[in-house]
């Protein structure tokens, strides 16, 4: 039996926001009943402010799927679309007090449903509908999804990918492909010198930025009692927040300039670093 937190148990037995919104402004549907989990997310959106006034869901799945869907709707109600779009699957899991490793794919499903709903509302192509190479045919998981989830959650093993996406958890025929994808994504951690950004995919660029911050910059800040948090990556703009002792440091502006210089050196010359509180 899975070791569920009290929050997961409560939102499974007493889920919030289950149901249907009549004439919803946005709908995101992900998963498949044939694969074991499916989620339909419906949103009511204030058109003037793009703020989510209501969110409801219908899901087919286990206790974690129901609890994750309920957590998602609670997290996004009252937020603008831009704010909601930044919610990660890890934040959904954290809201629940954690999920068993083998059930993390439920939080990923919630994040994907939200991304699909917002994309449809904004007239964009939903990520789940883009033409991508399917790696795991048992659970219809694409290479792009494996790469994205690996980078966002720092996954390095096939077992972790299976926990977060189900890929590799069926016949096992795709395991060698997943291993190759992981080697390709995390090979960037061995890059010792500046990389020509034209040779990087967007996901590889994001992975390299995260690696440089974690390996080259944060340890030096932490040694002096400071720290930073990566808030967002928008094209060539890297948005950070200075933390701990760096917040009150009068040299904060110089610190940001130094971070930008290091990212320009090791990732791409056109990177701009912006600091927010």
Query: Mean pLDDT, rounded to whole units?
Result: 86
Order of helices and strands: HEEEHHHHEEHHHHEEHE
Question: How many structural domains?
Answer: 3
Summing up helix and strand content along with how strands pair, one would put the structural category as alpha+beta
Q: What's the architecture of the largest domain in CATH terms?
A: Alpha-Beta Complex
Q: What is the spatial order of strands in the main beta sheet?
A: 1-2-3
Jot down its keywords.
19% strand; Sufe protein. Chain: A; 277 residues; three-stranded antiparallel β-sheet; 3 domains; Arc Repressor Mutant, subunit A; 43% helix; three-stranded mixed β-sheet
Account of the protein in words:
The chain is globular and about 50 Å long. Helix 2 crosses helix 5. Mean pLDDT is about 85; it is low at about 190-195. It has a three-stranded antiparallel beta sheet. A three-stranded mixed beta sheet has the order 6-7-8, with helices on one face. It has a two-stranded antiparallel sheet with strand order 4-5. The chain contains ten helices and eight strands. With about 280 residues, the protein is α+β, with helices and mostly antiparallel strands. It folds into three domains: about 5-125, Sufe protein. Chain: A, CATH 3.90.1010.10; about 130-190, Arc Repressor Mutant, subunit A; about 195-275, Fe-S cluster assembly (FSCA) (GMP Synthetase, Chain A, domain 3), CATH 3.30.300.130.
